[in-house]
Structures are given as structure tokens and as C-alpha cells.
Amino acid sequence: MYSRGIKGPQILDELENHLRDDLEEQVRSGLDLQHAFESARTRLGQTNSLRMEFRKLRYTEIMLQLKNGLLTLLGIPNYNLATNMNTSTPICNVEPRWVTYFKASAFLAPSLILWIFSCVFLMPKLKEICGHAGFPLPTLLQATLFASSHGALISLGLILLFVLLEWRLSAWPKYRRAVIGSGVFLVNAFVLLVITMMVFSALVAAPAMRY
């Protein structure tokens, strides 16, 4: 099997253990050692079939790791990992409050810094270019300017909202990580969309300034 491509030591050890257990069981049932070995080897399966099965298992394991990584990135709890094998009810391991908010702040910081830089230094120049070219500033960018000019009030409102949720909603800790993680993902996607729209607007408006 090693020469046919099944080289994982854990896999080979597991196959050998299965072979030995089956061999011992058949010897105890009355078969002689040679026939028991041939029968156990046949029941274990052909090398090609085993290699294909292990490839499928490996693919499934990789996809599961990608899924868990994506859920972790979004802050969504994976109840499959928290499920007790002896029960059918998933056990929710609530993440500590400070960990959730700290991770959200860390994921948000780069995009918020980039957004603030764009609104302070790039957006006024883009607005000037669009004005000279007679090209209206897209509604999304106008909304971004409005949000940036009222950023303090919006931030205060969000803080008060989270304080109220922590204080009054008993079920909030169960959904905190998923809600905040999804919100962080949406904010990052929005910032990327705004920057893309700024580049697009500049590319469309700049040629018109020649005339």
C-alpha cells in the first residue's frame, strides 16, 4: 500500500490494526491462519479503492477546514464542533464579551482607517474632479460623505445600541458573535465597494476634463 501511494503513517497503522483485528477474529472462529489472512486482506479492500476513499476523506477534511475558517472569520459559531457525540442537542459555547468586541475592532480597524483617509483626503479631490467634468458624484459616495460627516453620532448610536443589547436582551450573548461578525464583514465589503466606486468615478470623469 505504501508503494501504491498510501503513505500516511497514521492511515497505514489504522489499516494494519483493522487487518490484525479481523485476522484474530477469524482465527478465533476456527479458520486457519493462512485462510484467515487472505479473507481479512480481501475484506480490507483493494489498494486503489482504499486510495480513492482516503482521497475523498482528505477532500472532505479540507472542505470542512475551509468552512470552519470561514465561519470563524465571519464570527459565526459552528455548532457542529460544539456538539456532544452522546447527545443530539448542540451546546453553544458563548464567547467572552471582550473577545468578541476586541476581534471585531481588530478586523474593522484597517478598513475604517482606509475609509477615513479616503473621505478626508481623496473624496474632496474626487468631488472637485467630478464638478469640473460635469459628472455627478454617485449617490453611494454622497451617502458616504454624509456618513463620514456624522460619524461621531453614528458611532455613539452603535455603542448605545450594543450597551442596550448587553443590558436588556438576555438572548444577546448567544447571537452576539454571529451578529457582530456579520456586521464586520458587511462593513469591510462596503468600504471595498466605496473605494471601487471612487476609482470608477475618477476614471469616468477624468477624460471629460480635457474638453
Oligomer: single chain
Largest sheet: none
Order of helices and strands: HHHHHHH
Q: Beta-strand level of the residues, as a percent range?
A: under 5%
In the predicted model, the low-confidence regions spanning at least 5 consecutive residues are: 82-92
- Gyration radius, to the nearest Å? 30 Å
> What is the terminal-to-terminal distance?
74 Å
Number of strands: 0
Strand pairing plus helix content: what structural class?
A: mainly alpha
Mean pLDDT: 78
Share of residues in helices: over 70%
Q: Give the overall form.
A: elongated
What's the domain count? 2
Notes on the protein architecture:
This protein has two domains: 9-74, no CATH class; 97-208, no CATH class. 9% of the residues are buried. The radius of gyration is 30 Å and the shape is elongated. It is mainly α and 211 residues long. 77% of the residues lie in helices and 0% in strands. Residues 82-92 have low confidence and may be disordered.
Name a few traits of the molecule.
211 residues
Give a quick rundown of the structure.
The protein is an all-alpha fold.
Helix and strand topology:
Blueprint: H1 9-28, H2 33-44, H3 47-74, H4 97-133, H5 139-149, H6 151-168, H7 172-208
